[in-house]
Input
Amino acid sequence: MSEVINFLKENTLIYLATSGLDGNAKVRPILFYFEEDGKPYFCTANTKPMFKELDANPNCEIVVATPEFAWLRISGKVEFTDSIELKQKVIDSNELVKTLYETPKNPTFEVFTISGNATIADFSGEPPKTFQL
Output
């Protein structure tokens, strides 16, 4: 599991795919903020289409790649949290998030994790490594 978190720490710009409310796939960049109890955490605003899509259908997939073409893919379900402590930790971890939301009690501020299957792979010919989140 630490291998997944280390991959995210070294490659924080991630692409998240959702099922759009119009039925079409949607992909957008998001940032990884930290790990807590073996789970990666991310954030968004509940005013954004991404939140509405994940609220309607929590199934999603994220992918991130290195310049050397190794990649991490996580397929699973989003779990939103109301934890003030986790929200504060996200705010404290990123100046842009702090500027946007100011406080963990901001009513539009949403923090989430993804539980599911993670795969780290590359073009080396070695079998992919799989993990359960």
In short: The longest helix spans residues 84-93. The radius of gyration is 15 Å. DSSP finds four helices and eight strands in the chain. The mean pLDDT is 96.
